[in-house]
Amino acid sequence: MTRQLATLAACIGTLVTAGVSQATILGFGQIGGSNATIPVNYGSNATVDTNGLVVSNGSTPNITVTWDVDGQENSGSGNAWDIHTSNFFAEIENQTIGGGDWDNEGPDERIAQLDFDYHSIGFAADPGYALVLNSFDFGNTEETMDSSTWDLSITDSLDQVVWSEQVVLTNPDDDVITVAPNFTGNAGESYTLIFAGVNDPLNGRHAMDNLSFNQIRIPEPSTFALLGVAGLGFVSRPRFRKPV
Q: What is the pTM of this model?
């Protein structure tokens, strides 16, 4: 009986291991000069390290990324995320040291600049996989000249809010924070990360960097059902006694 239960536990362990997350981090290095538009699918289906991103613990081939997925909210500007290289963004760049050209630390900053009071990033997971949104750096520059408040949120495909946080960035100096939603979605679901300014005093003086997200494999319910049946079979098997 003990051996049978151990076998069942090993099967379940295999499924759990299949769900171990894999991480991709976007650092915006080497993907364009100042004011260059971020490619609309930058970071999608990442399988290897390349310009502007690193795959640290595997890959995220089953997550499609869309910058300003609802860009019509951006004063009709579509994808308005862009790269900026000003040294005013140095504090945001250096909030998290990525350790490679993909993140452009030092004198050659590369960050994702917010030009409007509304920006978004879409994440679409393939069937059988789920998004895990870990963290990102977010801040303002000393040029902002006043505190700014932002409503950050994640919505699902039905526009329901599944995570939210309001942040206040103060001045007169740079203010940078690391926001960590640590959000895990449902299999095959699409989500949108939204940056909505409440009282942004000056557009173009806010930025995001080091966007970290994962994917996990979600076994089909039928798989667990089969394991349940197998488990009942193990438990119900007759036990034979050794002859005395």
A: 0.81
CATH number at residue 162: 2.60.120.340
Using alpha carbons, select from 110, 120, 117 the residue that is nearest to residue 150. Answer: 117
> 87-124 burial, b if ≥16 CB within 10 A, otherwise e?
ebbbbbbbbbebeebbbbbeeebbbbbbbbbbbbbbbb
Q: Which domain range does residue 9 map to?
A: 1-19+220-244
Q: Which residues contact 9 (CB under 8 A, 6 or more apart)?
A: none
Mean pLDDT of 176-201: 94
- Determine which of 162-166, 167-171, 190-194, 233-237 has the lowest per-residue pLDDT on average: 233-237
Q: CA nearest 80: which of 91, 68, 62, 92?
A: 68
User: What average pLDDT score do residues 113-133 get?
Assistant: 96
Do residues 27 and 10 share a domain?
no
At 215, list the tokens.
């994917």
Do the beta carbons of residue 146 and residue 100 sit within 8 Å? no
